[in-house]
Specification:
Layout lengths: L2 H16 L13 H9 L12 H12 L1 H10 L8 H8 L10 H12 L7 E2 L7 E2 L3 E8 L5 E7 L3 H23 L7 H15 L2 H14 L6 E2 L12 E5 L3 E3 L3 H6 L4 H19 L2 E2 L7 E4 L8 E3 L5 E2 L3 H15 L3 H10 L9 H12 L12 H13 L7 H20 L5 H16 L2 H18 L3 H55 L4 H21 L7
Parallel strand pairs: 5-10
Antiparallel strand pairs: 1-3, 2-3, 3-4, 4-6, 7-9, 8-11, 9-10
Length: 549
Amino acid sequence: MTIKSLRRGYHVIKTALHFGLDELLPAQKTPWYFKLARACLFWIRNEHKDTIGGERLKLAMQHLGPVYIKFGQMLSTRRDLLSDAWAHELAMLQDRVPPFDSQLAMQAIEEELKAPIDSLFDDFDPEPLASASISQVHTATLKSNGKSVVLKVLRPNVEAQVVADLQLMSQCANLLEMLLGQGNRLRPAEVVEDYRLTIMGELNLKLEALNATKLRNNFLDSDALYIPYTYEELCFPRLMVMERIEGIPVSDIDALKAQGTNLKLLAERGVELFFTQVFRDNFFHADMHPGNIFISRDHPDNPYYIGLDCGIMGTLSEEDKRYLAENFLAFFNRDYHRIAQLYIESGWVSEHTDVLAFEQAVKLVCEPMFNKPLDEISFGHVLLEIFRTARQFDIVVQPQLVLLEKTLLYIEGLGRQLYPQLDLWQTAKPFLEQWMAEQVGPAAMLDKAKKQLPFWGDKLPEIPELIYDNLKMGRKLIGSQQQMLDRYLKHQHRVHKSNYLLITSAVLVICGTLLFEQNATLWPSYACVGSGILLWLVGWRSRPKNRKF
């Protein structure tokens, strides 16, 4: 471990103790050496004794900087692991980071481009348009076509800082897991590993550019979502160049109302976009918080979304998609037994779970919802409650489902902010029913057959030869099986014959011994014993050797 890492480690420990995070650990699970180490750092005092636990953690992460802030944001979505109070506090984390030196930004851009900025761009603005924990954005005009673009560049040395912080977080997570013992539901090591995969993906802007291009292509003909064009030839691991857009932040409701935006249609389109990305494309934007979404100023009566920051994207397996769709529909139809079955079939809860007990637990969560007006029910929070209930039955947390859950909560929150009367159920149910109809039934089978036609067309000429080869192989196999059976029967016949001779020899020897004890004429006794020995030799010699068939 380097001097820099040790200093960072000390800073993290000092911050944790300054906010009293050590006092949040259960006293009965805190070992003596941990208490001794805390006593040795007596000059660092808890200055937030009157602050609740969740708020202490939030303040500490804000103080530690961008990596920990993003970790707190991710952790706030793990309501299957945290209490509501803690999750609520962490959800309030704001990633507001001051910009770094523009000269460093320009230097980093030129290093990636391997050319001066003014050779490719005009009107480059040294003042950043926006600054975040990982990167910073500058505006310019592309010389080749005169279009306005934005240049997103990573912060200097951010990779090294992230890697160092992740290593430190992993070590702390392992220590915390050891302190909490086996069977704890927090599973800090697993949470840190999920976070590592997420944030390392955000550090590669070339990957983000590819994600943006793919998402844009999925919605090229859509009137609901627009993804800015990405100039892939100008994108590198530390630099991304894309079209500059003009829009209204989705959180600016006053501005949207002022231009006469159809908020009801906008909210419904948000829900449809979510389900389209998940079930049609199996490629969904998993970081759709308000800072990444704008609304176009064009034709407010028919508004569309503008999506940014495709660093975090989610995918699901075909099985997960089908189970989720069936889960949603079972919930819409109040079929709680089917919900319980689906959780077990999908492996989200243990296969040893009592289905009836789980069904009753889900029913207790869901049934009261149906007694409320539809516009007062949050489907995202219903899903959270089901996850929380499943936690009591040893739910196996799936990282891809956590991303999906977070995205659904973002979408529903935005939808209700735009149009509080939004009925997510009524908007989503027809889409899911149509999708399920397309996945099963004659039409779905015909569609799958059509998709397989090129494959079978390529294989068709080989089929007669394959049939002939298999028939020939089958004939040989039957012949070899018959030979094996004949050898087996012959072997068994010899075994039976040998056993018969050995048993007979034993009987004759016993009879000869008994006759000898009767003090009668000796020759019958000698004859029995001699015959027995002779039969034993014959039986032993005729016994087949062990062999494989």
